[in-house]
Amino acid sequence: MLNVIDHPLIRHKLTVMRDKNTGTKDFRENLDEIGGLMVYEITRDLPTKEIEIETPICKTKADTLAAPIVVAPILRAGLGMVSGILSIVPTAKVAHIGMYRDEETLEPHPYFEKYPHHMEESTVIIVDPMLATGGSSAAAIDMVKKQGATNIKLVCLVGAPEGVKLIEELHPDVDIYLAALDDHLNEKGYIVPGLGDAGDRIFGTK
Ligand code: URA
């Protein structure tokens, strides 16, 4: 299911990121901040369990997270959201999924994957700022499912309807979270209006 997280702070920060005059430092900082704000919202339904603890005053029952959290950035642009997410869930483990997109065919090609233990019992949060054709995200979801993950969330900053449709078709069990749903993809596979190449803007490359 698609969830567009509509919040004034997220809208403001995304506007800064969309502006072509925004430099690398501000782009990175705003992406990190949005990552933190989004993960606060998307973790609302995480399961908790009751444990017994002792405060300085007495014994009491209190809630703790019931399942581990794994953040799985799709390299390289997904890395730009990791530290913001970890600032909110510092106990999360970090998987890495290396994927590059063939510039001609726009097809995703996995080249690296590394996971923590217990993927099958974890909430896995796949992150990639741009949900364009959806090919890379769909392939990343396949990869984490092969590791046994069943509770998977896909967190992107900006999405195109084409990408959302593909994920909904191939992985109806995965919740998609966006900060904005944009208009369409152009002939080069860029999201319109979008924010350009997220990886290049995060890392200052061309
Ligand atoms: N990847 C990007 O970085 N930007 C787009 O607009 C589409 C895919």
From TrEMBL:
Protein name: Uracil phosphoribosyltransferase
BP term (GO), one: uracil salvage
Phosphoribosyltransferase domain residues: 4-205
Activity modulation: Allosterically activated by GTP.
Function as written in the Swiss-Prot or TrEMBL entry: Catalyzes the conversion of uracil and 5-phospho-alpha-D-ribose 1-diphosphate (PRPP) to UMP and diphosphate.
Catalytic activity reported: UMP + diphosphate = 5-phospho-alpha-D-ribose 1-diphosphate + uracil
Positions with a binding annotation for uracil: 191, 196-198
Record gene name: upp
Residues annotated as binding 5-phospho-alpha-D-ribose 1-diphosphate: 76, 101, 128-136, 197
The organism's place on the tree of life at top rank: Bacteria
A single MF term (Gene Ontology): uracil phosphoribosyltransferase activity
InterPro entries: PRTase-like, PRTase_dom, Upp_B, UPRT, UPRTase/APRTase
GO CC aspect terms: cytoplasm
Cofactor list: Mg(2+)
Biological source species: Dubosiella newyorkensis
Entry's cofactor comment: Binds 1 Mg(2+) ion per subunit. The magnesium is bound as Mg-PRPP.
